[in-house]
Amino acid sequence: MKQQSRDYTKPELIACCGAREIRDYDVVLVGTGFPTMCANIATHTHAPNARLMQESGVYDAQPKRPALSVGDPCLNPGAAMIGTLVDIMGMFLQAGWVDVGFLSGSQVDKYGNINTTAIGDYDNPKSRLPGSGGANPIGSLARRVLIIALHDTRRLAERVNFITTPGYIDGPGAREKWGLPADTGPEVIITNKAVLRFDKATGEAYLATYHPDTSIEEVRENTPWDLKVVDDVHETEPPTEEELRVLREVLDPSRKLSAYERRGYV
Amino acid sequence: MTKVVTMKEAVAEHVNDGDFLFIGGYICRTPFAAIHEIIRQGKRELTLTRSNAADDFDMMIGAGVVKRFIATFLSLGFFGLGRCYRRSIEKGIPHKIEVEEYTNLSLPMMLMAGAMGMPFVPVKDMAGSDLMNVKSFMGDNKYKMIDSPFDGSPTIVVPALNPDVAIIHVQQADELGNAQVWGIGGDCQVGANAAKKVIVSCERIVSRDIIGKDPSRTIVPDFRVVAVVEEPFGAHPGYTPGFYDVDFTFGYQYQQASNTVESFQEFLDEWVFGLNSRAEYIQHYIERFGYSAFKGLQAEFDYGYPVSYTY
User: Fold this and answer.
1) Which of A30, A185, A247, B262 is the most exposed place for a label (fewest CB within 10 A)?
2) Residue B24 domain boundaries
3) Every domain of chain A and the residues it spans
């Protein structure tokens, strides 16, 4: 019987939700911050044979502190391989070897499309965001795409105003029409209020679990589309003692994850 | 004949107004000494490219030397959005740069095609996204949709890129330019070899014999290189494996300084225009932050098996 803890923060819960999506022997292409933390919890608990890589060229890094970017110096010592962008994004991702792509999004819509390019009109944006980076190819080509986002009516959208990274685009059949590889696409959106999964028939995200201090009503109120609720909807399972121990003692002793509380992940 | 020159000479001779530059780096090995020199010399109307641009591109945009940007991404990493990039795009300060949007798959593939002498290259990303709907200065040549000549399937092809000049920072090079790196590669090798001319900035110049002790590390051979500049601490505030760590404190200072036009200008006056060379930069860094801060960034040593190729 797994020991569940009552003493945890919201970012820790989110990180554990992400970790649980990773299966043993998965090859995982991770972005910075949250995704890396999630994937590392998995490799230290239920998925010891999962392998992580960063687009910058690093495979199976053994960082001594949480990496603050995909080019972080702590990713170099101890890695099994360090190559280049062409190696990771071309030889591994484009060639079809990546099981899980792990992204976070500024704005995510009900089809799992992500906008990290601009808020407002593209030519005269209200906010210019960084752009695709590795997100578009990861979202296009990884078999299962995991997305982390903040849950409010600004960050979630019925339709993003710019599709930087395709999810199910405009619904069923769209990825196939555009020639994206079969059996790829978003698997889950993990937010600070809930876990949304995708109905592969409609391409739409639905409510799978809601976090312990929220409710179905609160989640639906903060979702700007008519969020469908699955029949067996239930509360998100809290972090286990073991997940928290790994997170706090092994991966993040300086509690870098708490920075996400300041960024609104509460 | 040695190609060793100062950064001032390398930039004056090989970087022209209006040039298309590849600038290597990935927080790792960013050629900041060259970037400061380009700003100091007031180069104009440059087109820049690299996958995952950061504070260096942001600074050049803020300093007004950039006209066009073949982009995948620009941010200050842990410190958030690029302030100068935002001001340029959102408010036209100092002017609005033109941006052609690609990704961290398609852009390195375009540089690889350029390096390999291929006219274009198929890529499997961008499909179905709005990256296909926004075209800037490359117009319809941003990409083409074709039917694969082999199986008829719809295929996106993107053009090869051949920058006028590539500037990279590496751990060590010899006097003729054989350039060696270790650690995160980014798109440095394809970017350098795609360019017509390569400027190599390095932490140390070593003999040709030392290069030959581990030739697998060489990413650009000497015949492709036009200038070699020895610039210790040349990637700061980025890092160079085996030499010094990333300087988060300085990264934060850049974020704060770049928040407003005025404080950004003060930052340039202090760290770029007020100094003549990287040697003066190091001296100024030590005066401002103390020798212990400088020393604190230096790498530790944890050697593995040395390699050997001899029988």
Assistant:
1) B262
2) 1-132+159-311
3) 10-260
